[in-house]
Amino acid sequence: MAYEDASLAQGNVVTVYRESLRLRLERFPWWFLVILLVTALTALIITTKSTYTEAFSFIRAGLSVTIMTTISAYFIALTLGMITGLGRISRNVVFKNLATFYVEVVRGIPMLVLIFFIALVLVPAVTSSLNTLGERLSAAGLGGLGAFFSSVTNKGVPMQLRAVIALSVTYGAFSAEIFRAGIQSIHKGQMEAARSQGMTYGQAMRYVILPQAIRNVLPALGNDFISMLKDSSLVSVLAVRDITQVAKLYAGQTFRYPEAYLTLAVLYLSMTMLLSLGVKVLEKRFQSS
Amino acid sequence: MSEEENIIVIRDVSKWFGKVQALRKVNLSIRRGSVVVIIGPSGSGKSTLLRCINHMEVEDEGEILIDGQQLPRSEKLINAIRADIGMVFQHFYLYPHLTVLENITLAQRIVRRRSKEEAERIAREQLNRVGIGEKADSFPAQLSGGQQQRVAIARALAMNPKIMLFDEPTSALDPEMIKEVLDVMLDLAKAGITMVVVTHEMGFARAAADEVVFMDEGQIIEQGEPAMVFDHPRHERTRFFLSQILHK
Ligand SMILES: Nc1ncnc2c1ncn2[C@@H]1O[C@H](COP(=O)(O)OP(=O)(O)OP(=O)(O)O)[C@@H](O)[C@H]1O
Ligand SMILES: [Mg+2]
């Protein structure tokens, strides 16, 4: 009897083990393994094949521009998005309409077109109106201030800065919607409780609603950063020397297309994979707390 | 009864939500230190009346006097008055991202402008008062419903309110937790805090209430001492309502 029981128990253990192995095999992220392999293979080619080594070192020069553009545009976009998100839910009619106008306009225009428009139409328009203002000020006897405004020339605003402005404006509208959704996901009882204690709307927002809302949207904001990194490649159309632009230049000079674009693609892929891993870790950490 | 004795005076207050009239010319005076229990069927305007008292809703007609002062229309002054009126909700509405202690110190610090030390001292005092001093560093999600509601009461008390409003404070609780919250409320009643309580806990009303108010369809139908209203209701609607909640 005892013997039988033991063997039966053993049999169960084996099947449980087998099942868990199968489950594990099914759950294993094979796609990720393939990406790792491709990345590793490309890295190997880059270190061994001279044309690839050359392409890589050429393209690498654009890395700091890509990273700086992404990071600075991202943080400006977050600020802009937070303000606009608050505007979208504001009871102030002017604030609300301004915010909605901005979001809807940006959402209705392709990003590429927006980048051209902001960098080549909006920025020059702003500088020229600053110049006019400067002239008026000088004429009105405010020489110092006038001279300053007049000195802001179109050329004085470098393309990389325009690219950052364009990306910020575009992503500001995206993250505004994330913030708005985050704030609206917080139960209205939270605002009621805070207001019933005598907090102003602003205090309730700052100390009660936003901390909860931001925690909820952290993964979405993280994904926005990843999208921003990818979309930063669009600024190459402004001849800003990010990795896409230098890859394009390299390909144009040497006609080595695989070298240029495989390297470029794998470069983006390894950065975004790393970042999305980071976002997942972030997500897990906030879920458990 | 002189006017000064009444800490809350509600005169001819009406309130509409679109086409729905939630309050119809409500008149009610509440003496300082008294406990008033409001009962009535769902949708009769009980919550709306409470929310008008601290101006979470603004009445469309009539006036409400707190301590002889008409409720102001300016945001700033309203905030000051709200700080003096504690409110306890059916679903607690604790701040989930803050610890119990922080829940109780937040408004003390930013509205009352108390120092961290003072706010924490008061918070611990109030937590002990509601019997959960040891939970100061927990997060709301780690507490039972009854404990959360007691934290919510401590949070309101820490502001030194002149008036405490309770909107069905026990109706979201499991039966075994109702008593611990009602016991705390009974203590407050004995301590002489002015309380306006929407509840259908008859036991609490009989033990603590100076007055029971029955509302229906936005009107006060009758009011009086608990024994009067519960045992000898004068109106048919009151009788019907009481028979319904007693048979549940
Ligand atoms: N914010 C609002 N918007 C629209 N209608 C509302 C609002 N608040 C309350 N009402 C309506 O006003 C009436 C009174 O509601 P109130 O919440 O005061 O009733 P109550 O007596 O508290 O009911 P319950 O016992 O269900 O809580 C109801 O018809 C309700 O639908
Ligand atoms: Mg209600």
SSE sequence of chain B, one letter per element: EEEHEEHEHHHEHEHEEHH
Derived structural class of chain B? alpha/beta
Structural class of chain A: mainly alpha
* General shape of chain A: flat
How much of the sequence lies in strands of chain A comes to under 5%
Helix content of chain A: over 70%
Distance between the termini of chain A: 49 Å
Main beta sheet strand tally, sense and closure of chain B: 6 strands, mixed
Oligomer: heterodimer
**How many strands of chain B?**
10
| CATH homologous superfamily label of chain A | MetI-like
How would you write the strand order of the largest sheet of chain B? Answer: 6-7-8-3-9-10
Encode the helix/strand succession of chain A as letters. Answer: HHHHHHHHHHHH
What is the annotated CATH architecture of chain A?
Orthogonal Bundle
The helical percent of chain B reads 25-40%
What characteristic shape of chain B results from the CA principal axes? globular
Tell me about the largest β-sheet of chain A. none
Biggest contact: A-B, 18 and 26 residues
The CATH class label of chain A is: Mainly Alpha
What's the tally of helices of chain A? 12
Q: What would you report as the Rg of chain B, rounded to the nearest angstrom?
A: 18 Å
